[in-house]
Structures are given as C-alpha cells and as structure tokens.
Task: inverse folding
C-alpha cells in the first residue's frame, strides 16, 4: 500500500483541477491504454519463459503453453485479446485528442509522440502475429511484408532485411521475436513515459476553451482537489473495470491457433491482420506504387504537421477536421469490405 501510494505521488501532481476529474473529458482512454501496455509487458515476459522462437519448435511451444503450463492458456488469451483491444483504445484516444483540439501549441510534440506510440503498438501486434507459426500467421506476414517490393530501388533490400532472407522463415521468426519481446517494448515504455511527462509539463489535461468558459460560471477556475484520494480512487476504479473487461474474453474465448505453417501450401484466401486489412483492400483498388510512394507519405505528413495549419475557430481548422474524419471513415469502410465481403480468392461477395 505504501509503495503504491509513493509511486502514485511521484507520477501525479499533488493537486488537480476539479474540472479535469470529469470522466467525459477523456473517457479514461489514455489511462486504459497505459494499463493495457503494462499488461502486455507482464504477460509477454511470462509467455516468453516457455516460448521457443524456431520454426521447428514455435508451434509446439505455443501448444505447450496453452495446454500444459499453469495458467498458460489464461496468460496467452489475455496477451492476445489485450493486444487487439489496445489498438482500438489507442486509436479512440487519438481520435478524442483530435476532436478536442488537444494538439495545440506546446502539445504538438506530444501529438507526434502519441503517433509514434500508436505506430509501435501496431508493429508490436504485427510482430507478435507471426510467433505462433501457424498457417494464418505465416501467409498473412508473407503478404503484408511483400508490400515493400513496390518501393523502387531499395524495396527488395528492405524486404530481405525484415524477413532475414528472401522468404519468411527462421530468420524472419527470429527478427520478429527480437522486435516483439525486446526492442519494441523498450521503445514503447520510453515513449509512454515521455508522453505522460509532456502532459504534466503542459499543465495537465487539456480543457477545451468552450468548456473553460462554461465552467467559469459553475466551478471556481482555481479550485483544485487533492490527487489522492480524488484522482487515485477514480483511476483504481477505471483500472478494475478495464481488467474485468479484458479477463472476460480471456477466460471464455481462446486465442486462435490454426494448423502448423506450411510454406508449400498457399491458402485460398490470405488476409492481413484486421488492423491492416484496410491497407490490403486499398492495394486491390489502387496501384501499389501510388499507395506506397504517394498516398501513405502524404497521409503521414498530414498527421504530423496539420496542427501547424491556421485554425478557423476554437474547434480547429474545418477542412482539416473534414479531411481527418474522411480518412478515418474511408479506412473503416475498406476494413469492413476486407473483413466481411472478401471470400475465397479475395473475391467480393456476401460471406456471413
């Protein structure tokens, strides 16, 4: 209890604005994402004690974890479902930050740090996707990494570096395991710490100007409450709810594990992980070279630097908001098409 209290007081201000304690201000998304990253780190370390990163042993070690290791099935399921939930929660957190214009001024750098953290979360999920070494994962990674071939000049070299050779094999599994269990967790911890520190430096949570003006008539602008117990109790309650929401599917629904990977047998339908299916669908409709060299770099530049554009009002630049929402809606539509309406041979149809 004393350690918990001291840790809390070292990572939070002693007092917080009363207005910042309202749940609807952030919906607890940032804290939920941070908790999920910690869960991923803990369960990942525990799973790594029994996992063997070799094409000859990886699949069997995952089965061993699932069926023979004490609480192995629970930890594997928790690691799997938390990883997928983390993508959704982190994205919703970024969307909330965008819609509330919490990227202004000195917070622009923190927006960029958040983008980097979200990118690392995607990479962590993708690198972990291959580790079970089943058919679904093997061919999904094969298709996803082949996108690099469309980069002129050095695309083939990049592909061989990432795969550890010309094809997905032992080298790929070793590289992905090293990234997933070593490099990416350290980078995520660094960026997450920096992200929270920047929020603290900026004066805490961002209060939209419209809400500030409304609060002046109801709440004294200088009213502050002790972080402990007011913030402490709220964070503990939110953490308990998140843990319960993650444990439920982890207890009753097993993480998928298909047949052992067979490089000589190509499935009829090969789909990327759900968070990249929108990109896979886009590559079907648009020339891959245009996607890789034009659309993706332009989208990245927009996400990095749109906070520098002149704003029309307190809600930000209207064209920027429309473009951002259009990007989100477009990718969501492409993802739905790829998930639901693509069947054998990636043919369009009704597949329910």
Result:
């Amino acid at each position: 209890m004393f350690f918990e209290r001291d840790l809390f007081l070292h990572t939070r201000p002693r007092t917080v604005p009363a207005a910042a304690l309202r749940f609807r201000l952030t919906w607890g998304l940032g804290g939920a994402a941070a908790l999920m990253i910690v869960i991923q780190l803990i369960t990942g370390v525990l799973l790594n004690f029994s996992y063997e990163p070799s094409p000859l042993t990886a699949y069997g070690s995952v089965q061993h974890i699932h069926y023979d290791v004490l609480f192995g099935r629970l930890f594997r399921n928790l690691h799997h479902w938390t990883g997928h939930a983390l993508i959704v929660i982190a994205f919703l957190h970024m969307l909330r930050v965008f819609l509330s214009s919490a990227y202004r001024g000195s917070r622009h750098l923190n927006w960029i740090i958040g983008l980097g953290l979200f990118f690392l979360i995607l990479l962590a999920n993708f690198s972990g996707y291959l580790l079970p070494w089943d058919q679904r994962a093997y061919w999904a990674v094969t298709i996803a990494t082949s996108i690099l071939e469309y980069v002129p000049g050095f695309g083939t070299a990049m592909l061989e570096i990432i795969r550890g050779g010309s094809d997905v094999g032992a080298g790929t599994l070793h590289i992905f395991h090293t990234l997933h269990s070593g490099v990416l967790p350290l980078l995520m911890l660094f960026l997450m710490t920096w992200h929270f520190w920047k929020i603290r430096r900026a004066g805490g949570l961002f209060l939209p100007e419209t809400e500030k003006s409304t609060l002046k008539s109801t709440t004294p602008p200088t009213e502050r409450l002790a972080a402990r117990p007011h913030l402490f109790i709220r964070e503990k309650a939110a953490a308990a709810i998140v843990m319960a929401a993650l444990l439920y599917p982890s207890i009753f629904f097993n993480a998928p594990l298909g047949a052992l990977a067979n490089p000589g047998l190509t499935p009829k339908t090969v789909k990327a992980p759900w968070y990249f299916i929108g990109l896979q669908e886009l590559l079907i409709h648009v020339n891959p070279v245009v996607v890789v060299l034009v659309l993706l770099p332009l989208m990245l530049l927009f996400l990095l630097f749109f906070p520098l554009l002149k704003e029309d009002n307190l809600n930000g630049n209207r064209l920027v908001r429309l473009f951002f929402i259009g990007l989100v809606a477009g990718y969501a539509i492409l993802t739905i098409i790829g998930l639901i309406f693509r069947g054998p041979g990636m043919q369009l149809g009704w597949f329910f």
The radius of gyration is 22 Å. The first strand starts at residue 15 and ends at 17.
